[in-house]
Amino acid sequence: MLLRLILFSCLLSLSVQAQPREAQPDAVSPKYWILLDAKDQTAAPAVSPAALASRQLLSLPVDDTDQPVSAWYLNQLRQAGIQPVCQSRWLNAVSARLTTEQYARVAALPFVRSIQAIDPAIIITSLDLPTNPQLAPVMTQIQAPDFTQAGLTGRFVTIGVIDAGFFGADSVNALKHIFAREGVRQVRDYVNDKKTHGKLFRTLETMSDFHGTEVLAAIAGNDPTENLQYGLATDAQFYLARTDQGNREYRGEEDNWVAAMEWMDSLGVRLINTSLGYAKGFSNPKENYEPRQMDGHTSLISRAAQIAADKKGMLIIVSAGNEGDDRSWRIISTPADAQGVLAIGATNAKLWNRIGYSSIGPETLPYLKPNVSCFSLYGTSLSAPVITGFAACLMQANPKLTNKELMAIIEKSSHLYPYGNNFIGYGVPQASRAIALLRNQPLPNTARLVKASGKTCALYVTTNEPVVSVFHKKDATHVLQQEAAKVSNGKLTLHRENGEKQTTVDLKKEVIEVIWE
């Protein structure tokens, strides 16, 4: 089919009849964001009454990011033979696959501000998952019984889950209670738009289609056959979106993620779990992200996440990543780098320090990442949903809390607060502390500051643990190394490392911050 052209003044010299039949973009043609000029200010907001009510509740204005992409721009692109894949009202952009010739033509259109390549790789932030992950230890770590005793189960809270697939979700024992009460409200498959609701749960395209099922179980799973609770938000409602397919690394579909976010926002969903992160890829090294670009604003997906946080009042909970052992990367992926999202790392079960694979926060960021952490043996994909369930319980207790207030409560409830670090953030959130914060009750004083000099320091500590975690830091937040230190007769001896200025001693029920003079 011949490509039809818009005869803008800058394209008058082009003639369809004079050109040979040109190549059309196919599934392997590069995908780009096409960022557009100003919107039609007369257009009505493209969000539901529920979303408008949520804005009003949170005192957030309805602005141009709620207005749709200009229909006129879309029509002009289609007449030029460009077929948009996804539209983003937040970014005022569309994505499309473009040949080299189409790229040059689109770049010359007067209403196109810029064109940006979509990152070619996505990382599903998990290791190989067993069919029955043992998540019970994390329920104890975060004090799940305290929420149960308070009657907090995520009731009346709606959660959006953006992931790679939900195969078997409607038949897994731990999730049957959700489907029995019709707790999954809607499902969208952005990878295959012809797939029906039922086929999303029953058609296995790749092994990653189990991933979202495991994540959902970690948010709300409860298996009566094993008397085992997997997640906290057992009574929540859900919207599910599949935005990618494939295994650990492959060409990313960043625009699908943004489209899913905007869909959920339009429905008034305020709490999102996404266990996907963008980092490095294989097909075109020139388009890969670099570690220095994990700065919270370089990637469009982080910009979209920040818009969701700042302008839509959404609390986005993101896996920090599993690149901690990868010496060529090590740090968190995007959108976990966005300041407005809650990035979740993973800890060991016993010591509560960073488990080896868990990604660390870049030292160049002016804010702390990850924000908090909790135990997960199988990847930060399964620590993030635990904290999503935690947040849902808080939202049930007080629906008027803003996303920033929720983040503050989760951080302040964590066991290392206020002495966070770029290995595990402020540590493991504690339900008892979060409930006290909800009730405006004073927290017990569990943090103390100690000054030391020289190369060693002897601390007398109160703990039943024979071994405790110690974080040696070059400054207030950046860790040189973590170690497991022995406690002997109630005494802990610290040995100062080269360049060490502060040390955090983690006693779980108490945190000691040592300032070296």
TrEMBL record:
<keyword id="KW-0378">Hydrolase</keyword>
<feature type="signal peptide">
    <location>
        <begin position="1"/>
        <end position="18"/>
    </location>
</feature>
<dbReference type="GO" id="GO:0006508">
    <property type="term" value="P:proteolysis"/>
</dbReference>
<dbReference type="InterPro" id="IPR000209">
    <property type="entry name" value="Peptidase_S8/S53_dom"/>
</dbReference>
<feature type="active site" description="Charge relay system">
    <location>
        <position position="211"/>
    </location>
</feature>
<comment type="similarity">
    <text>Belongs to the peptidase S8 family.</text>
</comment>
<keyword id="KW-0732">Signal</keyword>
<keyword id="KW-0720">Serine protease</keyword>
<protein>
    <submittedName>
        <fullName>S8 family serine peptidase</fullName>
    </submittedName>
</protein>
<dbReference type="InterPro" id="IPR023828">
    <property type="entry name" value="Peptidase_S8_Ser-AS"/>
</dbReference>
<dbReference type="InterPro" id="IPR036852">
    <property type="entry name" value="Peptidase_S8/S53_dom_sf"/>
</dbReference>
<dbReference type="InterPro" id="IPR050131">
    <property type="entry name" value="Peptidase_S8_subtilisin-like"/>
</dbReference>
<dbReference type="Pfam" id="PF00082">
    <property type="entry name" value="Peptidase_S8"/>
</dbReference>
<feature type="active site" description="Charge relay system">
    <location>
        <position position="381"/>
    </location>
</feature>
<dbReference type="InterPro" id="IPR015500">
    <property type="entry name" value="Peptidase_S8_subtilisin-rel"/>
</dbReference>
<keyword id="KW-0645">Protease</keyword>
<dbReference type="GO" id="GO:0004252">
    <property type="term" value="F:serine-type endopeptidase activity"/>
</dbReference>
<feature type="domain" description="Peptidase S8/S53">
    <location>
        <begin position="156"/>
        <end position="427"/>
    </location>
</feature>
<feature type="active site" description="Charge relay system">
    <location>
        <position position="163"/>
    </location>
</feature>
